[in-house]
Amino acid sequence: MSMEIIEAFTAPRRWWRGFAGWLHERMPKGLYARALLIVILPIVLLQSAVAYVYMERHWEAITDRLSASVARDVAAIADIYSSFPQDKSHEILSRIAILDLNMQATVLEKQALPVPAPKPFFSLLDHTLTRELKRRLKYPFWINTADPGNVVEIRVALDDATLHILTSRTQAYATNSYIFFIWTTVASVVIIAIATSFLRNQVRPILRLAKAAEEFGKGRDAPFRPTGAREVRQAGAAFVEMKRRVERAIEQRTTMLNGVSHDLRTIITRFKLSLALMGQGNEAAEMRKDVEEMERIVEAYLAFARGDGGETPASTDIGAILRDLQADTQRLGVEARLEIAGNPVVVARPAAVRRLFANLVGNAQRYGKRIDVAMSNDGKTLNVTIDDDGPGIPVDRLEDAFRPFYRLDESRNQDHGNSGLGLAIARDIARAHGGEISLCRSPLGGLRASVTLPV
């Protein structure tokens, strides 16, 4: 019993949550559409309710008066028939009904009235006309307001005959519903037009701010000036100030790294000069290898720290870069296949993107004997996959491969002639362009590197 009570209380809550979830899925997701809905829906509903209540009372008052008038006319015709001699009543009734009352009256032989039909619950005419006829007629009657010809039929059971009357619905009922719909429709269109023009001007600065932030996140410079409402201008000014600080930090870092790079290269050049003067002994050869290794590591560290942030974005042909890397791979004796579908041109920093794909292809060259590269463009993103048939990386270590200076202990480790920064630099470049890199198992049995770049 207790479970039934609990179920009775929880069922409405589950139903409400399900309805709320269904409604949430179908509600507009954009700020512009939601703002329009918030502004327009309450106004239209309130206006419809007010107009309906007003028009309903107006129609009820008019219908009451018209129905009372028809009831008086019907009662008058019945009184005329009862008061005048029977041999002249038919002619008098027809003349009065047609000429003065705009009705059609006929006297039939005495007969039983039809069975009353169920009255519609929302039929104002049925209820009002029945009430008025009961007030003014002393005879039994029957009415039919459902005639498809827009005619109201009334039958009155007199003492020795049946009075049959036909009249138009417009004489007893005010059918002005179209006025309500026209008024509501016109007012709603005016409200929507005003709200749309107003909200468009309010949302446009937000869209420009979002576009500028997106372009800046992709490494592109989009001109932006804060406009719009006070809060939007404040957000835009904060974005502009943040952009300046980031650009200033990048400029300072680039300047510092250029100085560090110059000083380190100067020292390494001195080492090379000293080794050249030492001759060709075994010790000198070992020291040259160490200096060359030091130079590669320093260049890798500087490239990772610098991130090629000072390069200007431009239209870059990714297909041409991949074809050059394919040719370089084939010269090394590694089988390389390339498939290009769609437009290969994107706006990016050319040297940085070349380094990105060179790092990924170079990583595949070290561990595989076959490389398959595929590029596609769906109009929104450019997708590149690089597959190899090497030993691969365990699934639980795929994300660790992107960590700077991280060494893998398995057969595919990053400690063979490199600094362990290739994948980290590649991901850093991809994210600087608003893209991403992911690793997974390759159909060739090795590693697949998937790159996405916004078009």
From TrEMBL:
SUPFAM superfamilies hit by this protein? ATPase domain of HSP90 chaperone/DNA topoisomerase II/histidine kinase, Homodimeric domain of signal transducing histidine kinase
User: What Enzyme Commission number(s) appear in the record?
Assistant: 2.7.13.3
What's one Pfam family here? HATPase_c
**What are the Histidine kinase domain coordinates in residue numbering?**
259-455
Indicate how the chain sits in the lipid bilayer. Multi-pass membrane protein
UniProt cross-references to CDD domains, sorted A to Z: HisKA
- Location of this chain's protein in the cell: Cell inner membrane
Any GO CC annotation of this UniProt entry: plasma membrane
The cross-references to Gene3D superfamilies, in alphabetical order and at most eight, read: 1.10.287.130, Histidine kinase-like ATPase, C-terminal domain (3.30.565.10)
**What's in the keyword line of the UniProt record?**
ATP-binding, Cell inner membrane, Cell membrane, Kinase, Membrane, Nucleotide-binding, Phosphoprotein, Transferase, Transmembrane, Transmembrane helix, Two-component regulatory system
Parts of the chain that traverse the membrane? 31-55, 178-199
Q: GO MF annotations for this entry?
A: ATP binding; phosphorelay sensor kinase activity
Q: Which intervals hold domain HAMP?
A: 200-251
Q: Please give the catalytic activity noted in the UniProt record.
A: ATP + protein L-histidine = ADP + protein N-phospho-L-histidine
Q: What is this protein called?
A: histidine kinase
Which species expresses this protein natively?
Methylocystis heyeri
